[in-house]
Each structure stands twice: as structure tokens, then as C-alpha cells.
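Q: What changes when magnesium ion is included in the input?
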Amino acid sequence: MKGIGVSPGIAVGKAILHKNKETEIYKKEIKDIEKEIEKLKNALSESKDQIKELYEKTKNEVGEDEAEIFRAHMMILDDPEIFGKAEKKIYEMKVNAEWALKEVSNMFVEIFRNMDNEYMRERAADIIDVTGRVINNLMGSKSGNLFIPEEGGIIVAKDLTPSDTAQMDKEKILGLITEEGGKTSHSAIMARSLEIPAVVGTGKEIESIRSGDILAFDGDEGTIHINPAQETLRSCMDKKEDYETLKNKLKSFIGKKSRTKDGYEVEISANIGTPDDMDSVLKHDAEGIGLYRTEFLYMDRDTLPTEDEQFEAYKKVAEKMEGKPVIIRTLDVGGDKDLPYLNLPNEENPFLGYRAIRICLDQTDIFKTQLRAIVRASAYGDIKLMFPMISGMEELKKAKKILKTVKEELVNEHIYFNENMKVGMMIEIPSAAIMSDIFAKEVDFFSIGTNDLIQYTTAVDRGNKDIAHLYNKFHPAVLRLIKIVVENGHKEGIQVGMCGESAGDPDMIPLLIGMGLDELSMSPVTILKARQIISELKMKEMEKKAQQAANCFM
Ligand code: PEP
Ligand code: MG
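A: The predicted holo structure follows.
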């Protein structure tokens, strides 16, 4: 059986079926409307107290960000749309409160489930959770804690509401499997934070699992073995042991410098898409944020984010990093990242087209709003600004000129910011790499974006699976360009980092160290592994290896 692996780790244990209790609700005619409304209000206030308690419990036991979901639940409780409509139904139809609320809840759940956006679809689960709680309180039935045997087990459920997850005894939960849900469902988010292996979205096949069945699965890959043969079981147990050993070994790298055996130090930082990634960044001990892909702030919505919305997001990240560097990249949409409300043109070659800085230099209002937000946030930490997709000097000069205007405006408005905020550029287009000697005189740092640099250097679309075998990060031409950029950057005394996927690749790291990169930015979960790899390398040897690799012929 296969699902979507959403929380890594190997789970082996007995199945514990968690029935999502669907209470039968009957429509009843009522005489005393006022009393029924009063009943609903009491149930609402009881629910509020319970959710507050879950908020505190989750905040103390898991973390503030995970507890946020219960704040959202409190907002649903205050939503006049849902509960106002239920009240109206009671008045107009003279019906019992639980039936009225169930009807309204079904209607909203249907609306959310039919939305295009995955995130919004998954919010249907929150409405079910909150209204289900109120209905339980109306009917006096409490949803008790799930019994989990001493030896622990793997929870198997249709879906898990945040309330279910918060009430579970985490020590004994070896894994989670759900029929519904996706990567951003709350059970998935919770599982990742709690480091419980989880597979979601199995579909109806989950019904073949019986209570007490032996289950084994890999929370990364998503395949679930039900009552596996002895051999499979043994191999899963071995994998589990290896995984745990590695995890503990990697934990010992928390708080350490990223340094080779012979003392060469690099900075290992994290790539993020939203402030929600910060828990993982802090947990995996990133030394900075090497790439904040701001475009996610602009996605999954119908209008551009305001300056204040952006400012709050950037400020939050800067504050959470407590003075460590945070590289914020200006908007990089176009290519494979569409923003429907911008009406980007349909292009023959979107990756060679209207994209990133090209859009920003054309639609300067959008650009200026973002620059204002970033510059304002620079007062709250070590924020650095980075321009993507620079292909020629004129673009860089224009971008810097707009930045200068924005700073002047803020000075005139008496808004405080860091006047010395560093400004850098991505090197992800061969023309920029080749001209990096000139660019290095104009910026404070470079960050090499190998995801694009590889595709533009070798003319291989990064998203085309038919030619994926040609997309080669070890192509000597790519390695030579990286080397040129590092040398040119260092000649001018600026930092040269890398934020493309290559930076976190275990096989690439030795070469990057050998080429002298100052910073490697990667997905937070790979940071400790990278630090471990680096601790076993010798700079002198890696220099030779890098030289050999750049000189080899394909
Ligand atoms: C890159 O091109 O390497 C990069 C980091 O940018 P993105 O993947 O967002 O295009
Ligand atoms: Mg790129």
C-alpha cells in the first residue's frame, strides 16, 4: 500500500485504529427557541475553554507555531458566518442546535473542499474539528483520549484533527497513517514537528488494515507493509536502527561550527519559503538564512501582498534569527512559478522569458513595495537583500537605483532602517558568472543558484523529466563556472555562497569546499548531515579533487 510520505523515519509496530467518531444527529423540532440558542452559546463557551487548554498544552509540549492552529480554531469559533447561520437556522426552522450546526458545517466544509488551492481545501478539516467539538459539547458526549498500549503503536485513521493529535500520548505513538491529507495538512505538520514518521493520503486501501496488524513503513518514501514477511520486517528494523543511529549522531553536531578537519570554516545556512519554516531552521541549527524565496508570500492568493504584510513576514524571520544573517531574495516568479493574478504572458520559453528581476524592473510598483518592506525590516536583524536572475550590468544598476530611491523615501518619512544593509545578487545565469569579475565590484556578496545555472549552462530544462539524465550538476562546465565566480568574488573580497540544491548534495559538498565557497545554503533538514560531512574532510585534499573534477572531460 502506498501513500504520501510526509514525516521521515521508519515506523514498525501494531496498528491502532482510530475511529473518527461520527455521532448520529437527528433533526428535532423544538418549542423553546431561546433555550436552544442559550444551549448553543454555552456549548460555544465550553468549546472555547477546551481549545484554550489545548493551545496551552501544545504550546508547552510541542511549540508555539504548532499551537497556532488552536488560535485559528478560536477564530472559527468567533466566526459569525458559521455560528450566526446556525442560530438563524434554529430561529427560522425551530430545530435543535446540533442539527442546525451540522447542516451549516457541512455546507462550509463542502465549499472549502471544492477550492482549487490545496491549503484552503485542507482547512475543511479545521471546520470539522471545531464544529464537531461544539456538537459533542451540545450532546454532552466527550471525545476521550485514544487508548494506546504500553508498547506503543501506529495510529491508523481516516484523518486526524489537530485536537486528536494534541490529545495523543506522543511517547507511545510510533507512527501515523491517514487516509486523507497532504503535505500541508495539520497532521503532517504536527508529525514533522514531533518527529513521528507519517504517511498520509493512502486512500480507501487503508480500510484493509485491521487492529493489531503489524505495520512497517518509511515516512519519507510512503510505502506501507501490512503484516510483512519476516525478511521485510527485519530489513525495516535494520533501517530503523540505522536511521535512529544517524539521527542521534547528527544531533551531536548541533551548536558546532561547520569546519573541516584542517580547520577551514564555512557557514551553513537554510533555504526557506515562509516564516513557518523557521521552527525547522532553528531545530537544525542553521547559521543563517541563505535564501528566503519570497515568492511564496505572493502565491495562493488573489492579490499582491501589501507592504505591511511583507514587512511583518520579513521582520518575523529576522527576529527569530536573532542577529544571524538573513538573505531575502526579491520576487522570483515566472518560469515555472505562475502568479495568476499578474496575468503573466504565455510564453514559448518561460524560463528564458519574463521572469524574476525582469518583471520587477518592468512593474516597478510591485518591486518598490517589496523593497520598502525589506528595507524597513532591516532594522530588526542582519537582513541582506539579493536580486535574482541578473544577466547583465544594466539590470543590476537599475535595481540598485530603485533601491536607492526607496531608501530616500523612507529617510524622508523618518522610518528607521539599516543604512548598511548588504546587497548581493544571485549568479544563476552563465553571462553573470562569466562577468562576475565586474559584478563583484558592484555588490556585497554573490550566491550561486545552481538550479538555474545548470539548466542555462547545459541547455537542459530543469523540469523536463525526459532529459533529466542530462541535467548534471557535476558537468565540468558548471564546475568551472562556479570556480570562476568564487575566484572573482574573493579577488574583490566579497562572500561567495551557494543556495541552489547542489549546496546540500552530499556528493557535491566536498567539491564545493575544495573550491572555497564561504557559505552553503540548503533545506534545513540537510544541515546537520552537511556539517557532519564537512567535519570529515580536509581542505587541502578537496582542493585537488575540485581541480580534477573541473578538468575532467565528459
Ligand atoms: C537556483 O536557481 O539555484 C535558485 C536557488 O533559485 P530557484 O530554485 O528559486 O530558481
Ligand atoms: Mg533560480
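Observations recorded in class: The radius of gyration is 27 Å.
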